[in-house]
Structures are given as structure tokens and as C-alpha cells.
Design goal:
Blueprint lengths: L33 E13 L4 E12 L3 E7 L4 E7 L2 E2 L2 E4 L4 E10 L2 E12 L6 E9 L2 E9 L20 E9 L3 E4 L3 E6 L4 E8 L10 E4 L2 E7 L2 E7 L8 H18 L7 E7 L6 E2 L4 E5 L12 H17 L6 E3 L5 H19 L5 H16 L23 H18 L1 H15 L2 E3 L1 H12 L3 H9 L5 E10 L2 E10 L14 E7 L7 E5 L3 E5 L5 E3 L8 E4 L1 H10 L5 H17 L4 H10 L6 H18 L5 H11 L1 H7 L9 H16 L3 H17 L5 H13 L3 H13 L3 H12 L4 H10 L7 H13 L4 H10 L1 H5 L10 H6 L5 H14 L5 H36 L4 H6 L2
Parallel strand pairs: 1-11, 17-18, 18-20, 21-22, 23-29
Antiparallel strand pairs: 1-2, 2-8, 3-7, 4-5, 4-8, 6-7, 9-10, 11-14, 12-15, 13-14, 16-17, 19-20, 23-24, 24-27, 25-26, 25-28
Helix pairs in contact: 1-2, 2-3, 3-5, 4-5, 4-10, 4-12, 5-6, 6-7, 10-11, 10-12, 12-15, 13-26, 15-16, 15-17, 16-17, 17-19, 18-19, 19-21, 20-21, 21-22, 25-26
Bound molecules: zinc ion.
Zinc ion binds next to helix 2 and helix 3.
């Protein structure tokens, strides 16, 4: 291909408002005139009485004379408070979660010591210091764990609980002698005490943010190892140790890779990774003592699925990346959470892809990117760097924009700067800011210095503005030459009056069939360039860009023809754009459906996976609609070829991804009404129950799910019995999802009732209600139940889900009246802090309602015509040969 680059637009800086990190200017609630330097904390938990006592001594530095000082505390009682030995009177502000000490005399600048005796309660809700229940054989046992991020360290000990207040921590804990106690750094001493207790004193941590403090104690099994001079340990509840071997092996690959990549060695002497069934997140990156949910850490080669294996690797890679990005270098304030999460997501995906090339990790990450883009194209989105006014609002920042748009933008930037310059910039950044805090501006500066490119000006549009662009390609001919015009505008899905925004877009542009010939241009203004007549020109070659591409009819027709010659990433990208154009009303739905048909026998799992995901989305829109039957028939016909190839049973030597492909095809067929598939699922379930014939790990979710869907009372009881007897979190969740899938209203109600019992861990209980809406497709029943038992359910939630839980129950709805209902409920029953999540969900429901109205007729026509064509023998084949 030949084309001249007409306008390589270099940019005047787009308003780049943010400054590099400066402690004084960092947002937050706490005054900065007095700061903690070192905490010595002694904690005495009492599981039996669900309480704890603590004592701490905090070395402070008054940066100027002060008359009062303020720190965070939540739900704690203070028995004694002294500054430099003088008693103090605490004043609590429960709403602000602060503790203020007014001083009789001015405290001079310099070093001081604050001493506090305090006490608090222990519960099962997964924040602060909490009780983590687990199964040990037939016995229920309890361990202790912490989840501090974002703002819950203050529930365990009074502290300056904002990330810019770095300090060292020396923790001492009194625990039962039989417990293993774990914290960020190694134990320095253990002393036996009376009454079967011991005192464990840990070494001093490096200066770090309070949200990274960790403490665990329980009867734990461990495996020890070592890599690159770092002592490794994986810890589990009793009997689960061997299931942590896979994560340990993954760690031994990942840690040395990061040591090399970051150019700074992992800074602690040890890395403990602990798995419990009850946690506040899939993984929490506590420095040197990462906590995982069992379901994201344990892998049993005999019973786990391929997707669990992938999840374990990916989550471990993500959390270990935080040991540098987040822990060694920490975002100054929650408005820059993306520096932690976007980067760790990108780095984790990069490491997962590197060590498991057969998993198509980056291709499949396009699913996350698509989801983030669909949220980012609506009125309720926000910029990657968003204002977080108070620490209470910090949990809202843990969303798809922060994680997935953050990851996608970093990937695009890496691709633009080049892998080596980007890595060198990261090395310089980590070295320069180690043991300190940063803003995004610090990262851009480091990358700019190394690459010599205007990173800050380019990046500002992507991280400081909401949304993203659509690049529009139109061809024209004249003066004996063919040209393509490349323009941009903001891409939206349902915003009537979106603010027009512009971006500096690095666009890889080239012949669809020869991706290596692609050139990168940085598009700011509309530009025209000559192209070879008849060229199938594709933009976003490699699918690395975070933008949409719209092609005029002539270009699209040529691209469609070139599909068989394209690389998988480009086929996938073309499909993703076509679906998004249909959603946005920028192209007819038939264009995308035709592409689905063209790609029906594609041999790349990542593509099949995206198509199947799209079919599920349409399935939700079609629920109860007149076109549902025809749509299901068309969708079933689409997956006949992969079903015939994969069959029910794994083939010797088959690719790992075939296992996931098989289960997703069977699940789709069964749910979309294939009677033979449902019967086979029943047969295998009965053989499992009656004759003990095993169900392979990769088919468990699918078979139990389909059986649960069709369950009668007896089957439901059997599934429930299996769930109760199950000690694996992964398997228990599969069985609980099967219980939630019951289509019988009566059985689904019995499932819902389980969420109020103590049979399930708090998180599993609340998820069960959601599963009745999603897997069971009975959102109305789930919402009705949740509203009737709201307080009991809210009392089981993790901090991260507190605001999003009720809205999440409404997400499966596609009728606008449900958006009104959610808003009405929010006004009377939900905390004002849930407002953003409510608005986001209501907007999503209204969008789906409008989409249903607009797109369904196209889809229904398409399915009916395809179904009738496929009934005429031979016609399908001849059509598909072009
Ligand atoms: Zn993370």
C-alpha cells in the first residue's frame, strides 16, 4: 500500500491540569500539619467474644505548631489517649469517621508520641479486621483476616487513613498458639503466653499507606519455596495446600519477570500469599501478604476448570504487579486509583499472555475492553482520572473505567511509544518514586523523558476526558486519485447532548490482509490521504486502540471480503466495531449479523467467545419477545459446527481452550432450547449421582447449571445436599449457581431463602440473590426478595459492594419502567452514597430498552430469513462460499 501522510498533527497541549505529586496539595480530609511516622500496634483479638482490644503508640511529626489534630477512626472505642504522656479527650465524628484531639496547650513543631488504648468489634463482613469462617472437614472454624482498602484500616486501629500518609508499621498480635499469624513482613519474635496463647511481634515495614496493612491468623497449611532470593509461602485453610501449588508455580515465573521488567527488585524479604473462602475481593495486594479468595487462588487439576486456571494466573499476576505499582509507588489520592488498577491490570495481562501464549489472553481481554467501552459511551461515564471528593466515595472508583479502560489505554500507549521505551520509562518512574506517592503527571513525565514523545499532551485527552472517539473512514475519488478521509468525533450510545470532545489518536492503519505493513499516524484533525484503489484498508490494526472505527459502505464491503485474509486480532476488532455501530444506530444490525454468520466457523476461540457473548446479550433483550424462538433457532444453528467438532468429551491432546469452548457451546445450546443437549446434561448428572461417574471440571458449571435450570424439587434437594457437603469454594459456587438457575418460581424462592441462613458465607449469600436474577433469569423475583430482606442482606456486604449491590440486582432488566422503579427505591431505601451506581444502572436499563425497540426488528427479520434459508438444503453452503 502506498499512502502519503498529509497531516501528522502534533499537538498543542490539551489542557493538562494535573500537577506532579506534592504532599501539601494532595486532596483528602485530614489536615497535613501533623503526620505519622511510625506506628507500633498491639492487637488482641478474641474470636469467641467477637471483639478485640488494641494499643498503639504513634510517632508523629508536627510540621508546625498545632492546637488540635485529626485522624481516622471508625467503630472503635478509645479508653485512653495521651500525647507525650499528657492525657487527651477524644472527640468522634462518626459521619466523617474522624477522631479529633483538641489540645490545651499548643503542640510545638517536632517529634511527638501519641498513645491510644482502644477496642472494637469483630464481624463476618469482610472489612477492617474480620472473622473468616471456613470448613475443616465437618467442622466450621474461624480465622482472622483484614481487608483495609479503600478506607477500613481505621476500623482496626486509629490512623491517618489516606494513602499519602506513608508510615512504618510494627504490628504485634496475640493469637492462639496453634494459629499461624501472618503480616506484611516476617515475624521477628514469638513468645508463649498463658491460656494457650502466643504473642507474635512482626518486623517493621517500609513506609507505606495504611490501606496495605495486613494481618491474618488461623490454623493454616503452608508450602514454602523461594525465587530470586525472596522467601515464598502459600497458605490455605487445612487440607487445601496442594491446590495452591499452581499459584506458587505461577508466582515463581511472575516475580522474576517483574524484577526484570521494573528494574527494581521486589523490596521485601518475603512474599506470603494466603487464600480464604471469605474475603472482600478476589485478591487484595497487601504488601508482602496478599489475600486471595479461594476461588481466585486454588486450582485442583482434577476438579477445577480451565477458566479457574486462567483466573488464578491472572489474579496472581495482577496482585504481584501491585507490589511495585501501588505498594512501592502509591497513588497520592483515590482520584488516581487508575495508576494502581489500570497499570496492575495491564501488567497482569501482559505477564499472563507471556507465560501462556496459547490462552489468547490479549485477544480475550477485548471482552473487558468492550464492556468498558459500552459503559464509557454513555452519559454516566467519567474520566479515568476522576474527582473523588471524599474517602467515602473512593469505593466508587473501583470500576470498569478504572480497571479496563485504564488497562486498554496503557496498552495503546505502550504500542505507540514502543515496548522498550515504555519499559524504560516505567523503570525510571519506579526508581525515582520508590517509597513515595505519585500522580499521573509523574508517570507521563517519566515516559516523556525516555521516549521523547509528547506523552502528557496525548494522554490528557484519554485520562482527563470521559468517553472516546470514533474514527470515520470515507473513501472518495477525483483528479485521478483515490483518497480516504479520516475524521473523528465522540462515540456515544445514548447521550442526546454529549459534549463534543477530541483526542490525539494513535491509529495503526494499513491493508487488512497485511498487518505488518501498517503505519501509525497520530490523528487530531480531519486528514486525507491517497490510497491504492480497491484497497481493503483497515484502521486499528491489531485491535490495540481504545476507539471505534466506522467505515463507509465501499470500504466495509471490501473489508468484509478480506475477512478470511485478516489476522485474528483484526477479525475480532472488525466484529466488535460492527456490533458497537449497530448498538449506536450508526450501521444497520444486519451488517453485524452478517459478520457473525461469516465468522461462524472461525477457529479462534477468542472470536467465538465474543460472538457467543453477543448472542447472550441479544438473548437478554429477546426474553419474552415475539422473536425469541426464531433467534434461539438461529443461534443454535450457528454453533452446530463447533459442537460437532468438540463433542461432549475432551479429546486426547486437545488445546486447553477447547475445554472452555466446549462448555460455553453446550451451555448456550442447552439454555437456548436444544432438547438433546438438556437431556444429555440430565443423563450425565444422574450417572454422577447414582453411579459416581465423574463430571470433568470443565463441564461442571455447565451441566449443573442446565440441570439446575430444569430442576424439580428432588433435583434441587440433591444439588443443595451436594453444595452443603462441598468444601471447595469453586465447586460450592457452581452448585449454588445451579440452585439459583431453577426456573420453577417455587424452587428459586427456596434458593433465595438460603441467603438469609448462616449456611453460606456473607459474600456467597448476597451473590446467590443476584444469581437468581442473572443465571436464573428471574430478576423480578430476586429484587422482590432483596427488598423484603434488605437490611439482612446489606449487613452481609463487603465495603466494595455496599453501594452497587441493589443496582446490580436491577441490571438484568431491559424495560425502562424498571429504571424508574430503581430510582424510586433509591430515594426511600438506599444510602445517598449509592446515587452514582443507581444512575449508572438506570441509564443502562433505559439504553437496553431503547436498543430492544430499535434493533429487535432487524434481528428478528434476519433470524427468520436465515432460518428459512437453512431449511433449503444446499442454499446455505453456496451462500457462505464467497
Ligand atoms: Zn488491583
Amino acid at each position: 500500500m502506498r499512502f502519503g501522510l498529509c497531516s501528522l498533527a502534533f499537538l498543542a497541549a490539551i489542557a493538562a491540569g494535573e500537577e506532579p505529586f506534592a504532599f501539601e496539595k494532595t486532596p483528602g480530609k485530614l489536615p497535613k500539619d501533623i503526620v505519622p511516622k511510625d506506628y507500633a500496634i498491639r492487637i488482641e483479638p478474641k474470636i469467641e467474644s467477637a471483639s478485640f482490644r488494641g494499643r498503639e503508640s504513634i510517632d508523629l511529626e508536627a510540621r508546625k505548631p498545632v492546637r488540635q489534630f485529626v485522624l481516622n477512626s471508625r467503630g472503635l472505642e478509645i479508653a485512653n489517649a495521651r500525647i507525650d504522656g499528657h492525657p487527651l479527650i477524644p472527640q468522634f465524628d462518626e459521619a466523617k469517621q474522624t477522631l479529633t484531639f483538641a489540645l490545651a496547650d499548643e503542640l510545638p513543631a517536632g517529634a511527638h508520641r501519641l498513645e491510644l488504648d482502644f477496642s472494637g468489634k469483630l464481624g463476618e463482613q469482610t472489612f477492617g479486621l474480620f472473622i473468616a469462617r471456613y470448613q475443616d472437614g465437618a467442622q466450621q472454624k474461624r480465622a482472622l483476616a483484614t481487608q483495609m482498602e479503600a478506607t477500613d484500616a481505621r476500623r482496626m486501629f486509629p490512623c491517618w487513613d489516606e494513602p499519602a500518609f506513608r508510615a512504618t508499621f510494627e504490628l504485634t498480635a496475640v493469637v492462639p498458639a496453634a494459629h499461624t499469624a501472618v503480616s506484611n513482613v516476617p515475624a521477628a519474635a514469638e513468645t508463649a503466653l498463658a491460656d494457650g496463647l502466643k504473642e507474635v511481634r512482626f518486623e517493621k515495614t517500609p513506609p507505606m499507606a495504611s490501606y496495605l496493612v495486613a494481618f491474618f491468623a488461623g490454623e493454616l497449611d503452608a508450602i514454602e519455596d523461594e525465587v530470586d532470593g525472596v522467601k515464598l509461602r502459600v497458605l490455605t485453610t487445612p487440607g487445601k495446600r496442594d491446590e495452591a501449588r499452581y499459584a506458587l508455580e505461577a508466582t515463581k515465573k511472575i516475580l522474576p519477570f517483574y524484577n526484570e521488567y521494573f528494574g527494581t527488585k521486589y523490596p521485601l524479604p518475603k512474599l506470603d500469599q494466603l487464600a480464604l473462602p471469605s474475603t472482600g475481593a478476589g485478591g487484595m495486594e497487601n504488601w508482602g501478604a496478599i489475600l486471595y479468595n479461594d476461588s481466585a487462588f486454588l486450582y485442583d487439576p482434577n476438579a477445577s476448570s480451565q477458566s479457574t486456571k486462567e483466573r488464578v494466573f491472572a489474579v496472581v499476576a495482577h496482585e504481584i504487579a501491585h507490589q511495585w505499582f501501588g505498594n512501592l509507588v502509591t497513588m497520592a489520592w483515590w482520584d488516581n486509583l487508575w495508576l494502581n488498577e489500570g497499570f496492575a491490570s495491564w501488567m497482569g495481562t501482559k505477564a499472563t499472555d507471556r507465560f501462556n501464549p496459547e490462552w489468547q489472553t490479549w485477544l480475550r481481554a477485548s471482552g473487558d475492553k468492550e464492556w468498558a467501552m459500552s459503559l464509557d459511551a454513555r452519559g454516566t461515564t467519567h474520566a479515568i482520572q476522576q474527582r473523588v471528593a471524599t474517602d467515602d466515595a473512593a469505593t466508587d472508583a473501583f470500576d470498569e473505567i478504572t480497571y479496563s479502560k485504564g488497562q486498554a489505554f496503557i496498552r495503546m500507549l505502550e504500542s505507540y511509544l514502543g515496548e522498550q521505551p515504555f519499559r524504560d520509562g516505567i523503570r525510571a518512574y519506579v526508581q525515582r518514586h520508590a517509597l513515595s506517592n505519585t500522580t499521573t503527571a509523574d508517570l507521563w513525565k517519566a515516559l516523556e523523558n525516555v521516549s521523547g514523545k509528547p506523552v502528557r499532551a496525548l494522554a490528557a485527552g484519554w485520562t482527563e476526558q470521559p468517553g472516546f472517539p470514533v474514527v470515520k473512514l470515507s473513501e472518495s475519488a477525483g483528479d485521478g486519485a483515490t483518497r480516504v478521509e479520516i475524521a473523528q468525533e465522540r462515540f456515544t450510545l445514548n447521550q442526546k447532548k454529549a459534549e463534543p470532545l477530541f483526542w490525539a489518536i494513535p491509529i495503526a492503519l494499513g491493508p487488512a490482509a497485511a498487518p505488518l505493513d501498517a503505519r501509525v499516524i497520530l490523528l487530531k484533525e480531519t486528514t486525507r490521504m491517497p490510497i491504492e484503489p480497491g484497497l481493503a484498508l483497515k484502521a486499528n490494526i491489531g485491535g490495540v486502540g481504545y476507539y471505534r472505527v466506522w467505515y463507509d459502505d465501499a470500504l466495509f464491503k471490501r473489508l468484509r471480503k478480506a475477512v478470511p485474509l485478516m489476522a485474528a486480532a483484526d477479525r475480532l476488532d472488525l466484529f466488535n466495531d460492527s456490533w458497537a455501530m449497530a448498538e449506536a444506530g450508526r450501521a444497520p444490525g444486519a451488517r453485524c449479523l452478517d459478520l457473525i454468520d461469516l465468522l461462524r466457523d472461525d477457529t479462534t476461540y477468542a472470536i467465538a467467545d465474543r460472538i457467543i457473548g453477543t448472542l447472550w446479550f441479544i438473548h437478554d433483550l429477546e426474553r419474552g419477545e415475539p422473536g425469541e424462538v426464531a433467534f434461539h433457532a438461529w443461534a443454535r444453528a450457528l454453533v452446530q459446527a463447533p459442537m460437532a467438532r468438540l463433542g461432549w468429551d475432551a479429546k486426547p491432546g486437545e488445546k486447553e481452550l477447547d475445554a472452555s469452548w466446549r462448555s460455553s457451546v453446550i451451555e448456550l445450546l442447552g439454555t437456548f432450547g436444544d432438547a438433546a443437549v438438556r437431556a444429555e446434561a440430565q443423563r450425565r448428572f444422574r450417572a454422577f449421582v447414582e453411579k459416581g461417574e465423574p463430571i470433568p471440571g470443565n463441564l461442571r458449571r455447565t451441566i449443573f447449571g442446565l440441570v439446575g435450570r430444569d430442576a424439580d424439587a428432588e433435583t434441587w434437594e440433591k444439588l443443595h445436599e451436594l453444595s452443603r457437603a462441598e468444601s471447595s469454594s469453586e465447586q460450592k459456587r457452581i452448585l449454588n449457581r445451579a440452585l439459583a438457575s431453577a426456573q420453577s418460581r417455587e424452587l428459586a424462592s427456596r434458593t433465595l431463602a438460603l441467603s438469609l441462613t448462616d449456611e453460606l458465607l456473607p459474600e456467597d449469600a448476597t451473590h446467590l440473590v443476584r444469581a437468581v436474577g442473572v443465571a436464573g433469569e428471574q430478576p423480578a423475583l430476586a429484587v422482590e426478595f432483596a427488598l423484603a430482606h434488605l437490611d439482612a442482606l446489606l449487613a452481609k456486604l463487603s465495603a466494595l459492594e455496599a453501594n452497587s449491590y441493589v443496582p446490580s440486582l436491577f441490571r438484568p432488566f431491559t424495560d425502562a419502567s424498571r429504571a424508574d422503579e430503581l430510582e424510586a427505591i433509591a430515594r426511600t431505601k438506599l444510602s445517598p452514597a449509592a446515587a452514582h451506581q443507581v444512575a449508572k444502572t438506570a441509564d443502562e436499563i433505559r439504553f437496553k430498552a431503547a436498543l430492544k425497540k430499535r434493533l429487535m426488528p432487524d434481528i428478528d427479520d434476519w433470524c427468520r430469513s436465515q432460518n428459512s434459508k437453512s431449511q433449503k438444503p444446499g442454499s446455505k453452503q453456496s451462500e457462505r462460499k464467497e
